[in-house]
Amino acid sequence: MNELYITLLMNDHSIIEKALVILEKQLARKKKNWTTIQVLFEILWDYGEKNHNMKEEKVYFPLLLERGLPQSGPVAVMLQEHEVERNYLSKFKEFLSKSEKTEEEIQSFVSEFNDYASLTKDHIWKENDILYPMGRKFVQPDDVPYLANEFKRIERESLGEGAYTRYKTLVDALEKESGERIDLLASIPTEVIGNMLDALPIEITFVDAEDRVRYFNKLDKEKIFARTLSVIGRLVQQCHPPKSIHLVNKIIEEMKAGKRDEATFWIHFNGMYLYIAYYAVRNENGEYQGVVEMVQDVNPYRALEGEKRLLDN
Ligand SMILES: [Fe+2]
Ligand SMILES: [Fe+2]
Fold it and tell me: What CATH number should be reported for the domain holding residue 288?
């Protein structure tokens, strides 16, 4: 689990990354929506530069150095990259304020933006995956609440109350408005998605909003609960023993009514200790799309103690 201060920094990163991705798509279009582009750059400047980068430059980096991280280490590199980002953004700002833009200017702007975007994405990756984990070794317990409080203060002072929620709502709306919802699965063939679900040590069944079984994993593999293709398309109520139907109905009814998001059970079964969980599947508007059941033998996890950081062989 991340400490709150790291979560706050990473949440900022996800807003910045989203803005970058929407911009990349906008700028790749023939017909560009300059109003949307302008708003996205304002997000990068206001939220990314004046808020996020200041949390790092004014509070987080100085603290790491004070706690012993070498001056010449990653912090120096991060600061240098912030400077490059800033220069790019100032240049873009100037360009966007022009009322007339020639095709040639637009082209060089787009290509510079792409350089800036890949630099910034790379920068975010380095912080999330290298600097923040490394920094945890230097941050003292008392620093943890201090950092979170300082981050909140900087955010409030630079952008006002509730900035994170406002900016997150804004990028989400822009993502939707420009029809650019980021669908990470779109690039993966269904076969690979199926194999990925089969590779997990869990059994998954999906029941749609009409209560019909639509999918289960490990079709021709060994399973805890045998399932055959004949259940596909059948009502879930027909797939459960009569004595548990009332439970199934109650869970589904409450999920449909928005009163419940999950239901969990654990039972002994054939020498296993099964954890059985039902999770409501909803779209981004919260509308019920079905329920996913997950069955897992948790015996191997119950025996865990201490830590294991090395490979077995
Ligand atoms: Fe940074
Ligand atoms: Fe950052």
Answer: 3.30.450.20
CA of 76 to the centre of ligand 1 (A): 11
134 and 208 in a common domain: no
Burial class (CB in 10 A: 0-12, 13-18, 19+), 176: exposed
Q: What is the pTM of this model?
A: 0.73
Residues 230 and 125 in one domain: no
Q: CA dihedral defined by 149, 86, 124, 22, rounded to 10 degrees?
A: 110
**Phi and psi, residue 60, nearest 5°:** -70, -55
Question: Whose atoms come closest to the Cα of 84: which ligand?
Answer: 1
Question: What range defines the domain where residue 215 resides?
Answer: 190-302
| Last residue of one domain, picked from the residues 152, 182, 212 | 182
Distance of CA 198 from the midpoint of ligand 2 (Å): 36
* pLDDT range class, residue 1, cuts 50, 70, 90: low
pLDDT for 105-139, tens place per residue? 999 999 999 999 999 999 999 999 999 999 999 99
On whether residue 312 sits in a domain, the answer given is no
Taking alpha carbons only, the member of 67, 85, 192, 79 closest to residue 136 is 67
Domain end position, chosen among 182, 202, 231: 182
CA 82 / ligand 1 centre spacing (Å)? 6
- Assess if residue 310 is contained within a domain: no
Please name which ligand lies nearest the alpha carbon of 82.
1
Band of the pLDDT at 73, cuts 50, 70, 90?
A: confident
Residues near ion ligand 2 (Cβ under 5 Å): 127
Residues 269 and 287 both lie in one domain = yes
Indicate if 198 and 90 belong to the same structural domain.
Answer: no
